[in-house]
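Hello again, I could really use a second opinion on something today. I owe you a coffee for this, so here goes:
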Amino acid sequence: TDLEKILFYSSLIREQIMLNWKKPKSSKLGMQAEFIISLVPTGEIIEIEIKKRSGDEAFDRSALQAINKVNRFYDLQMPRKMFDENFRKFIVIFSPKE
């Protein structure tokens, strides 16, 4: 289904970001930062905006750096309509797990 595909691509994007993330020492459970990422169909990032800050500068900076390091997401071959509706501009939420 389309929803399964969207979830699949979302998790691919998340994995590619997390590979680059260096969790700061100040990171605590419950912290959250939200970023709006704009892509072109090739998977390249054209813009990153901070939508909601966590209140911790080091945490926000580390999340932003992780997204910036990706530069381009790979394996996002999907129908153009799905891309336009779900991935041209989307929100990524950073939140420590432990």
Remarks:
- The first strand starts at residue 33 and ends at 39.
- Strands lie at 33-39, 45-52, 89-94.
- Helices lie at 2-18, 57-70, 80-86.
